[in-house]
Amino acid sequence: MVTSAATPETRNGAWVLCTERVHDRAYHMLGARTIEGLIVLGILEFFYADAIQQLVLSRFLFAVYFLVNLILVIPQRKRAMTPALAWLDLIGNLAPMAAAAHWSGGIYSPILPVFVLKIGNYGLIYSVQTGKRAFFTTVALLAAFSVTSYAGLGPSSAIHLVPERTRQQLTFFFGVFLFLIGCYGALRFFRELSDRERRLAAALEEQRSLYGQLLKDRDRLRQLSQRLVEISEDTMQAVSRELHDDFGQALTAARLDLGRIERQLPAASDLRQQVREVRQQLAAMLENVRNLSQVLRPAALDDLGLMAALESYAERFAERSGVHIDLHLPAQEPALGREAELTLYRTLQEALTNVARHARATHVTIALDEEEGRVRLRIRDNGKGFVTEGEDRSRPGLGLGIAGMRERAELYGGRLLITSQPGQGTEVLLELPIGSKGEGIRGKGAKTHYRATG
Q1: How does the average pLDDT of the chain come out, rounded?
Q2: Which of 63, 68, 157 is nearest to 105 (CA)?
């Protein structure tokens, strides 16, 4: 049996039809309803024929009953049941049974218990909502047939011709029949419930296994991400040192040599002017190399600490961009690990880069404070802002930058909050636990490679 959790359903208004379950039970329902119809029609023909004035109408209704159930097998097997066909099923099956119960004694009819079986059948096969409709439809049909008694369509006055003992025996027969059907249904139900619980237990075990694997994969992914961040920082530090120490020193030496050559040339010669221009170009190149070296890895962060590095970067950003910056730093350096200091510095770097590229701001406030075992870096600008919900596809670089900042924060147990509205500026808040060291071991690959290559 297909469980309701995995059963395709057709929804139309308030109807819910479990088409897969109906498909699986189509031939079973046809066989059961055929047996029910033959038994009820046989009781009417053999025991109540003399007492029923509308026997022809009863035969007609049961002919419709068999025809409807035969026709419905096609849409049931094709999973094409609709609310209209479900109503046809209800009326076509319940109306003949309600008429037979009415004509064979009403509430004293031995056929009346059949409705309990049919209502349960609708609830188990179609859906609970359909079972409720079957119940109310049954009550409405019985009430309608009771009203027709005043039009001469009720039980005949010759109902007493059916001996009371016979009616009792019929009632007993239907009671035993329903009891056996109930036992069979209960056994089927408990077996299917056991199968469902077994499948559910297997599914839960698989889910638990997948969840455990997901946690392991997530942990490995986090370690890999942390490793990549560390290697990236080490690589940038190596490149920064290469630029500052080797390339920068080479440019400085060349500039000094050209200075000596310039002083030895005649003051009015064209060659001296050309050498001076080359020296000026080398000076500009040297300044660019130093700026690039500071962007890749600020020497102040390693030599002087976090607050000096933040102050130095903020000053250089204000000079380059023309944006006014208010910097608020604590009186004492926070006791942070190397990874946490790098995370704070890179967050400031990325946030100010976004300000320069996207915000069109004229004023930025930067505040670093320490409270309750956590350090907070807050960057607030008066720029144009943006919508924080969803992904800003018009500026993919901004989205990647925020994702990178958030990933760095989460690697070391912190969090990153972005608050922004169009026209009201943007605030970036980074919180990190004091003393966060990260979980991985510092990668030595980039350093080893740097040492190996000179």
Answers
A1: 75
A2: 157
d(CA 341, CA 301) in angstroms, rounded, equals: 8
175-198 as b/e: b if 16+ CB within 10 A: eebeeebeeeeeeeeeeeeeebee
**Two structure tokens written together for 331:** 């009186």
Give the strand pairing for 415-420 and 374-381: unpaired
Determine contact, residues 447/234, Cβ cutoff 8 Å.
yes
DSSP assigned state of 148: G
DSSP 3-state of 366: strand
pLDDT at 442: 36
Helices 128-147 and 83-103 sit at what angle, rounded to 10 degrees? 40
Q: Say how far residue 26 (Cα) sits from the centre of its chain.
A: 36
pLDDT (tens digit per residue) in 399-442: 667 777 787 788 778 888 888 888 888 999 999 888 655 443 33
Between 139 and 296, residue with greater pLDDT? 139
Single pTM value for the model? 0.47
Give the CA distances from residue 8 to residues 11, 68, 303, in Å, rounded to whole numbers and listed in that order. 10, 24, 67
Pairing of strands 374-381, 363-371: antiparallel
Complete edge-to-edge strand list for the sheet that includes strand 363-371:
324-328, 363-371, 374-381, 426-433, 415-420
| Residue positions counted in the chain | 454
